[in-house]
Amino acid sequence: MSKRTYHDPLHGAITLERNDPVEALLTALIDTATFQRLRRIRQLGPASLTFHGAEMSRFTHSLGAMAVARRAFDQIAEQHEELRSHRATVLCAALLHDIGHGPFSHTAEEVFDSEHERWTMTIVEHSPDIRGLLDAFDRDLWQKLIQVYRHEHPVPCVWQLVTSQLDCDRIDYLMRDSYFTGAAYGQLDLDRIVLALNYDPSSQQLIVEKKGLAAIEHYLVVRSFMYAQIYNHSKNLSATWILEQAFGRARKLLRQGQLTADSTVTAWLSQPNERLSLHHYLASDDIVFTYHLQCWQHHSDPVLADFCQRFLNRRLLKVQEVTYATPAEQESLLANVRQQLLLEGVDAARYSGLKHTWSKGYSVYQRGIKIKTRRGLVDINQLSPLVQTLTEPAQRTWLIYPHEIDVGLCPLPVAEEIVGAWGAYS
Questions:
Q1: CATH code given to domain 3-192
Q2: H or E element, residue 376
Q3: pLDDT at residue 108 above 80?
Q4: What is the chain's percent helix, strand, coil content, to nearest 5?
Q5: Other Cβ atoms within 10 Å of 27 Cβ, number
Q6: What is the pLDDT of residue 408?
Q7: pLDDT at residue 393 in the model
Q8: CB-side exposure of 155: number of CA atoms within 13 Å?
Q9: Closest by Cα among 212, 218, 217, 214 to 195
Q10: Which CATH architecture has domain 233-316?
Q11: What is the β-pairing status of strands 370-373 and 205-209?
Q12: Most buried among 63, 110, 162, 167, by the most CB within 10 A?
């Protein structure tokens, strides 16, 4: 066949032409086992326990990011011929930008202290199937992708299209996550955003035409809402906490010789993430780790079994926002919860804690978002009062604890039913 088409719920038909050398390379990269692995990693990790439609994968997002990058790049390069030689770099970098994600996506970074960006660069350089295809196209292509991921490519526009304050990755994941979680306020005007993107030959930066200011303001407002209402949703925090406790307990039992796991999960539990072999990293996905949770839910250790059952059956811990309280009051609330749990013989440190989240605000890092005006290039926060209100990241604090305990600023005493509910862990 002369073409390959992927039907996407957001972007429609994403068609790659095999008679186009760059798009033929993209097709071959998609067909590798390393890239296909992304089908088995959920885009939003355990967020499907909160938003039941959030079952999409890193695979679908990566295709979407590439599609947006192709659309934006081809439009800009049509007007600026000097950019056309960078097409393979931009599109391959967009397609492969998330190839380093581990099981449960960003949750793996919290649970296992992993950095998907570092693993993406490792895979691009050392994975035989990915590196082999890149080398066959251009011996220097893999290094150009690394330059993009490190924001070191000599033409800033090339890396800004892939990883910046306004990039194809963020555009796609905001649209995709909004669509699949049912968050209507996450809809973006993609047509207007893409049409507003341009290139400044003098600084070689990605810029936005003044006519696109409102669309970019909307994009930044949507990003703020999505972090506050979706990515940092209290139930997501609870699901992540439960996974942290399950794998933390499993790690301890493995060291004691009281746990069975396959070679992949054993490697993840027994050594720092950065020391994993490429083989063991690529052998990991949501299916492998969820299978182990299913096995361990019947383990003789009651704590491990309980956390596995909680995750698999969606019996989440309660999460209450305590941002309004002073740090001392927050610690007092936590101390009260832990005292109640300790009285019942429960591992209080595993079943309760304080969690801090940050909703990312707009900042000028990675060169910010430059608007083209008659006075030259101006950062968007200097033109938009709306964006100025989004420049400060918002920190929130959450108290995690079992549903059986009722907590407020004036904590209530333990009810008799709590004693019975926790008797099994005494």
A1: 1.10.3210.10
A2: strand 376-379
A3: yes
A4: 60, 10, 30
A5: 17
A6: 53
A7: 76
A8: 20
A9: 212
A10: Up-down Bundle (1.20)
A11: parallel
A12: 162
